[in-house]
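Annex B. Sample input.
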Amino acid sequence: MWRSSRLWWQAPRLHAPGEDARRVTWLELFYDLVFVVVISRLAHHLADHPDARSLGEFLLLFIPVWWVWLSVAYYNERFETYDLSFRVATFFQMLAVAGMAATAEYGLGKTATGFALAYAFARGLITLMWWRAGRHNPGVRPVTDRYVRNFSVSVVLWTVAAFLTGPLALILKGVGLLIDLVTPLLTLGDQPRVFPAPARKLPERFGLFVIIVLGESLVGVVNGLAETERLGAVTLLRFVLGLLLGFGLWWVYFDYIGRREPDAHNRWRFLAWSYLHLPLVVGITVIGAMVEHAVATEGPASAGVRWLLAGGFALFYLACTGLEFTLEPEQETLLTPRQLAPLRLLTAAVALALPLVLSTLSGLVLGLIVLHALHAGLGIRVWFASGNVGRTDLH
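Annex B, continued. Sample output.
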């Protein structure tokens, strides 16, 4: 009985170098579905209130959501088990994220207490999991002990902030979130020794998260069409252009970034690769929210919508610029990251200038699609010239 119980309640074990990488599990895919809900609610609120204040609120709520997902993904990369204890922990994580989803739309207003407590609960769970991993794997304690100490402070700050209002509550949440984000940087010196194994399935996990955000954007476009009171030519045009814009985001990311491996042997680049996905998915979500607003609203779009749309597009390309420098170099390529960077930066600059010269939203979206087409066409040329054409292992 004791021996069989250890099969379904296992201690976390550090995955060793050379260990075969497992693909993303069905449980991880199921867990990710909760984030579809919370991101959708945040994007929908931004679509209903496309202004600078709502953008700030969106960012303050989106970053904690992203950090919860990232933290669990990194823990699974190192200590994932396939037993009952891991399933129980995943369920409670889903419960916490579901609480964040239910309170996200007004997470800095009337439901701020619920959102803060849900985030604190999620962070408390992952902190407990890191503590348990250190207890059963003494060699990783230089990292896990720091995680536990710092993350515990953040949990306390968010818990206290849940019962406060006004600037003090925002300050405590901001300090707690800053502690969460900075703590991994403080362990980079120990990580090569403590976690010698390179990335096993994180590239796939990140790619799937980008797909989730892209999918939410497509749902927003469809919802915008469904919510319109009158189906006119302008609405249909915005709908088609919105889908094309989202398709271009997928094309550029997975042709240039998603199909390649991060430089897992350089810890600074690996961490930069992880963190640069935050502005990338923020940009995608903002684009989706603005297209949803545009499709659902008859008449000309406000200047705020056009600037947010162009800003999300520019942020996406700026993130791609940085991500290019964090990837493993390809053996056969025509363009290096240094050669691509000026084009990416120019694309972001042009996108930010378009609202000054294009007063209609349809014209702005069409201009952004043209910018997409330049990168997509270049990607096709590079792909065929590099000898990668016909390879199925890169998709």
